[in-house]
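Lab notebook, bench 4. We co-purified these components, and the gel suggests they stay together. Before we commit to crystallization screens, I want a quick structural picture of the whole thing.
Request: model the full complex, all chains together.
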Amino acid sequence: MGIQERKEREKERRRQQIMVAAKRVFSDRGFTKATMEDIAQEAELSPGTLYLYFKNKEELYASLSLRILQYLLLRIEHVNAIKDSGPDEKLTALMEAMYDVYEFDPLIIINMFHLQSSETLKNLSPELLSEIKDLSRKSMGSIAQIFKDGVALGIFIDRHPVALADTFWSIFSGVILWLTSKKLINESKDFLRETLTVAFEVFHRGLMAK
Amino acid sequence: MGIQERKEREKERRRQQIMVAAKRVFSDRGFTKATMEDIAQEAELSPGTLYLYFKNKEELYASLSLRILQYLLLRIEHVNAIKDSGPDEKLTALMEAMYDVYEFDPLIIINMFHLQSSETLKNLSPELLSEIKDLSRKSMGSIAQIFKDGVALGIFIDRHPVALADTFWSIFSGVILWLTSKKLINESKDFLRETLTVAFEVFHRGLMAK
Amino acid sequence: MGIQERKEREKERRRQQIMVAAKRVFSDRGFTKATMEDIAQEAELSPGTLYLYFKNKEELYASLSLRILQYLLLRIEHVNAIKDSGPDEKLTALMEAMYDVYEFDPLIIINMFHLQSSETLKNLSPELLSEIKDLSRKSMGSIAQIFKDGVALGIFIDRHPVALADTFWSIFSGVILWLTSKKLINESKDFLRETLTVAFEVFHRGLMAK
Amino acid sequence: MGIQERKEREKERRRQQIMVAAKRVFSDRGFTKATMEDIAQEAELSPGTLYLYFKNKEELYASLSLRILQYLLLRIEHVNAIKDSGPDEKLTALMEAMYDVYEFDPLIIINMFHLQSSETLKNLSPELLSEIKDLSRKSMGSIAQIFKDGVALGIFIDRHPVALADTFWSIFSGVILWLTSKKLINESKDFLRETLTVAFEVFHRGLMAK
DNA sequence: GATGAATGAGTATTCATTCAT
DNA sequence: TATGAATGAATACTCATTCAT
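Here is the predicted assembly.
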């Protein structure tokens, strides 16, 4: 029992070790330019070992997304669970949560887009794929719930909650991507924060019923 | 002189012919999967010929972005030039203009992000690079101008015009990317349009001073 | 027209150049141990070039078999076309023909067996595959015809011509393989010839009706 | 002493366990496609353990051949030992014996050929190699003895007994390989049996002195 | 003895780019 | 200018073998 467990834990530790290395290498060079050799070197392992823990390059990459998606869902559900809190406060809390997630792993948005490419999807194991889809669906559903409540209470304008959730997510990811691509992030985190704040404020104002 | 000029024109025609083919192939397969061979075939030319007109694959890809950026700037400046029109109307016109640009070349957003990747930038010639940067700057500046006017006139809330312009652009590109990645575009253009409309409406409402 | 033709011929020359090199390398090391790099080196070409003329390693290997099969069929049909010649003489001529084919390319038998492996078949283009099957069928059919005639004329014992053809082919290939595997060929060609002669004599005697 | 012996027996048991698994895996996938991992799994052992009992993959494969060769020799010597039986009856009995061996392990012929490849031989330990050679020599010698007797008694035609033995063996293995490669064995064992019968009948007839 | 995680050499194949014609 | 045959570097992935436990 102890042995079984220790082995399991050791194995998980290895997976994490590889994922940490992979995250670093993928961040530096992007998916295409990053080689498995690079990642192995970063992880101080041999290339073959990577394949003991991940089916292939795509699945290693996707696993990074899975991890961050899990954390994202956790945060979102936490927001939804706040007692004595209206849609309005929840929305603000949601924004904060998402910013935290972003700080935890700035690649989240790029990962999400890469993940959707049909070529990528083909190479993933069905289990991983369904897990990812499930997490995505739950997260977006949880976000939509906030808007649904807000609309029902007459606090938010009466638009389709899913469209509002999409808008919310789009603004968030749009700002991230846009500023990332402008390479402004490295120069100034505050600038990102500031732009996000303005964007959110405008969105929030526009959302209010009155 | 006539000869010189005719040659120049002929050369430009060839460039266009290649870019049309490249656009088709890149759209179908994405940057990585598209091969120069594919593009040559689509253009009914030999691979070698491509290199007479474009330094390399990256630069060919970037040239597509340049073209669309030129068109984008044209449309934005056109919006700004509308007489007897307030920031409010201009904003609406801008939205329409951007949607037109998108319909003209749906890859625009993806191109813009690909373009910014540092690995890509390294392979571009300085001339092309500065031209692209110049166009980007002008476009964003032109957009910011609308917001500046709106703020000055007390129509829009008093936030930094550049931040507002970034927000506007982010929402637009965010929605496009998000829905593209959700594969909803192929299924339903209306859905994209609809979500964009909601997003813009919310943004617009949130922007108004009162 | 001249140009088109010359190019075609040049291309065929390249194919032959590669096949000659491949034959040498495959003979030396066998299919698995031979690398495309080896073959390219032997052909004084780059690895990439091999793929301009052959889809993959399997198809290159199979092409060697195709060539020898074509020659085999030619020889067999030639035997069948001999005028004023009974099944008896034809059989002897067939034996000679097959020995010639063997001398032309001693790998023929081994190629034939490799060719049949299901894993190999998967990687061949349908055209090549059907061409090979067609040639095999025709060759065996042509051999069977001799036995059919002999049986019909009462010269050979009354057994199924296909079984007799299979037996004939089996003896031939069996002797070749057996002696090849005993590495006796290198030591003494006469020994192979001698054993084949005895085998054929016995087979021939056993075949006669009386 | 008892302990030493028991250990020895235990060790032999393990070897057998591995060989049984190896035979199954090699039969299914062939030498190249079969992995040591596969075999270990089939034997319910770890890969490392395989190397405690066999020097390498080649030697494991060769050991299978050794076993079948031992069985083959046993059967052949048994035929030779039949009292009150002439070369004629012995030949028939030999044919039956070999068919039994084939049924016991259909891979025998293929093994024998694989075994002879020079690349394979290099990787075998000298002991194993000489044992295999010894068994082969003895088997072929024992077969040749039958023919020698038949020739001496004037029953068989006067040809070199070794050549006759080679012919006999070649026909047998030739038919097996040929029909195997035609994939007819799976479809119909009877067809193989039938063709073998015709082949043997013709051989036998051709062999008789009168 | 037994394990099985880790190794890392080995290889088919692709494709951007070049250059002789 | 245009060609397109040739290049050869680059890379994901496999698997026989080892060795610390």
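Residues 65-207 of chain C form a domain with the Tetracycline Repressor; domain 2 fold (CATH 1.10.357.10). Worth comparing against the SEC data before the next meeting. Chain C has a mean pLDDT of 89.
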